[in-house]
Design goal:
It contains four helices and five strands, in the order ααααβββββ. The chain has helices at 2-53, 59-89, 97-114, 116-131, and strands spanning 139-142, 145-152, 156-160, 166-170, 177-179. Strands 4-3-2-1-5 form a five-stranded antiparallel sheet. α1 (2-53) packs antiparallel against α2 and α3 packs across α4 (116-131). The longest helix has 52 residues, at 2-53. The chain is elongated, with a radius of gyration of 23 Å.
Length: 186
């Protein structure tokens, strides 16, 4: 009798792996492929678009702009893919996502109200990137801090000053951005 229980449990495990486990594997592989393709296509597509739009600019400037925008877009896409994958995989392991989504919606609204600075950071980050105020490698002064831009995201700008100190500046603090790396009119 005990051996029959073990066989039934083993059959259920095999059945789960052949149905739900296979679906989870397909979800993970599909999202990984999409992420890989996006990580390859985004820099190329941005390069083509920016060359067409900013054709007369120096090659280094175009490459810097493409790199800065590519990093921001790729991070955003990976975050969306991770969330989508999680929401697709949870039902396969028996977790109902309807109540989770409802709870997340309510909590999200409360957090959005409480975290207005994050929204401001994100909007300013989008404007900084879209207006090409500065990019990775530029020497700038923002929010009273001068240094070389090491990273720009929708949320913050990372600067390294001449002493080697790393500064994280929230994009909502960037009221005036002085770019010391660019010639006038570029």
């Amino acid at each position: 009798m005990d051996s029959d229980v073990g066989i039934l449990d083993a059959d259920r495990v095999v059945d789960w792996f052949l149905t739900h486990g296979l679906r989870v594997t397909i979800i993970v592989l599909a999202l990984a492929v999409v992420g890989f393709v996006v990580s390859r296509l985004v820099p190329r597509a941005l390069g083509v678009a920016l060359r067409a739009r900013l054709g007369g600019r120096p090659r280094e400037e175009l490459e810097g702009r493409v790199h800065t925008l590519s990093v921001a877009v790729q991070r955003t896409v990976w975050a969306i893919l991770l969330l989508a994958g999680l929401l697709m995989a949870l039902p396969e392991v028996g977790v109902r996502v309807g109540p989770i989504l409802a709870s997340v919606g309510i909590v999200g609204l409360a957090v959005a109200i409480a975290a207005q600075s994050i929204v401001r950071d994100t909007l300013n980050g989008f404007l900084i990137l879209s207006e090409d105020q500065y990019r990775i490698g530029d020497v700038v002064t923002v929010a009273g801090v001068s240094g070389t831009v090491e990273d720009v995201s929708l949320r913050r700008t990372v600067l390294r000053d001449k002493d080697g100190t790393l500064h994280w500046v929230p994009n909502s603090s960037v009221v005036v951005a002085s770019n010391h790396s660019r010639a006038v009119g570029k």
